[in-house]
Amino acid sequence: MHLTRRTFAAVAAAALLLPLSACGSGDDDGGSTDASGKVEGDITFQTWNLRANFKDYFEGVIAGFEKKYPGTHVKWIDQPAEGYADKLSADAAGGTLPDVVNVSPDLLAPLAKAGLALDLDKAAGKYKSEYLQGAWTGHQVPGMSGTYAFPWYLNTGPLFYNKSLFEKAGLNPDQPPKTYDELFADALRMAKQSGGKVATLANVPTVEDFGRYGVPLMNDQGTGFAFNDPKGVRLLTKYKELFDAKALDTQALTATPESSGKKFLTEAVAMNPGSALDLGNFKKNAPNLYKNIGITDQITSTGHVNMYVMGVMVNSRTEHTPAAVAFAHYVTDAENQMSFAKKVAIFPSTAGSLDDPYFTKEDGTDETRVRIAAAKSLKNAVNYTPVLFSEQMKTALRNEVARALQGKESPEAALDNAVKACDRLLQQQG
Prior knowledge:
Blueprint: H1 5-11, E1 41-48, H2 51-68, E2 72-79, H3 84-94, E3 100-103, H4 105-113, H5 120-123, H6 133-137, E4 150-155, E5 159-162, H7 163-168, H8 180-193, H9 207-212, H10 230-244, H11 257-265, E6 271-273, H12 276-285, H13 287-291, E7 293-296, E8 308-314, H14 321-331, H15 334-341, H16 366-378, H17 391-405, H18 411-429
Parallel strand pairs: 1-2, 1-3
Antiparallel strand pairs: 3-8, 4-8, 5-6, 5-7
Helix pairs in contact: 12-16, 17-18
């Protein structure tokens, strides 16, 4: 029940958000945090698999910046999706990190710990009010004071559901579940009515699902994980009940976003997360599903949906801090973000942008309906995935969740073991 990082990246023509392998740790002892000087000099700007689809857009942004600030020159580097994290690690270790870098929060965290990310609360705090609060705080690292990247584009998505399958199960197709209790009850009913042939969900719970359920994910100091609390155990216990009743797809333990999407497309699963782009796919490849598609909000116990956020980091070692900060801000300002959002199905992180008629005015199409609903929910959305939660930690949690669902461990023991494994990995990051 989560908009996957794959979906987010595909929507933005990016790629899976990979872990940064390692680049040591240290203090911010290079470069200057003073961004108040003259904006001038040559800087490098690195993006992440965006040139193929957005070459004209970025060349236009760069030209606009260089015109605004004569005496600047921006060299644009676009790295492929494959190996991006490793490239960042190598550049960090070799002292060749570009001046301005496209990062996700999980890639940012080790760079910030290594003292390579400029603290924007100090260097560019005057811009903070231009961005949504949840997006700005998305680039903070537990255990460190400061914000280490400008928020860039955001994404989130609704839950799609199959009205026909709901109706066949004796459920009201116009009243999809709004709470977890309703979701679990509807899922059990659908499994029973279909003789176990139709599952409601296709994915095991991830860390963001625990967050959305209201489970504390880390301690206040950011030094350890906490999702093994009673509320976390309760959520996993519920998923175990769904799994046993075949209300959770039997292949959920090995599911990928692609396989889950295919299950929904072939009407073997009744609910799946997605984005506006999925509607076109349904219309083309599954017209019967498209005819019966229902659209509802993400289910949360917190009142806040999950957001995915990309950022633009400034290298703390840059020789041209004023120019690098000015350019990172320029790329992520309201005008340029709005322009980018109209080229691809993403959302601006700048305050007020989501009130634009593009995100508020209905035109009768499902695509616009999804865009408007997502934009509204993003205003107070949060990034539930902790920035310190690495790919290895995701694997550790997934493995323990699988053991609990298979009955090899109790939900309580599984989450205790997952927290221990993640805490060990966290210590290794330090």
